[in-house]
Amino acid sequence: MIRVRLFLIVLVFYLLFCPFVWSQSFEAQKDEMCRNLEGFKLQDISGKEVSLKEIIRNGPVLLVFWASWCPACRQGIARLMSPDLKIDTSRVVLVNIREKKEKVEAFLSKFNRKPFTVLLDSQGALTSDCRVTGIPAYIVIDRDGKVEFTGHYLPEKYKEAFKTED
Fold first, then answer.
1. Which residues have CB under 8 Å from 143's CB, separation 6+?
2. Which of 41, 78, 128, 140 could form a Cys-Cys staple with 148, CB 3.0–4.6 A?
């Protein structure tokens, strides 16, 4: 009985205290994420070199890190490609992680494709710089190149922020 009480006390303490620690650590780490973003140039799906500095200038920007083998990524991309979601495609960048162009094209061909910018992070350098630890990863970058949000989902307030006017 004492063990059960002790376990419950530890569990309650953990559940009450950990969210505070996590939120504090995120704020501290946020400044370390995507520090060299403006210096990155990656190839898009058509083979053209794209400067992230140019994309951010029109900010804010939603970076979506994904891979075609990831079930949650496939669901997220399908939602973004949905005709029901009216989203400003000029401010959403799909960053594929370490897959060959042919594989990315084959995956994206399953959709009536919206004109998102699709970048190939073939070496994982941008993924590393943005400290992506799991996918899908959604990172909102403000006009100044600072990380505003990062997570494995996109909250409603950002869906609203990236919606088109029509």
1. 56, 57, 59, 60
2. 140
Does a structural domain hold residue 1?
no
Residue 6 lies in a domain: no
Return the structure tokens found at 31. Answer: 């400044």
CATH of the domain at 149: 3.40.30.10
At 112-132, the pLDDT tens digits run 877 899 999 999 999 999 999
90 within a domain of the structure (yes/no)? yes
Residue 23 structure tokens: 């939120």
In this structure, which amino acid lies at residue 139? I
Q: Return contacts of 105-111, CB within 8 angstroms, 24+ apart.
A: 105/45, 106/68, 107/68, 107/74, 107/77, 108/45, 108/77, 111/77, 111/78, 111/81
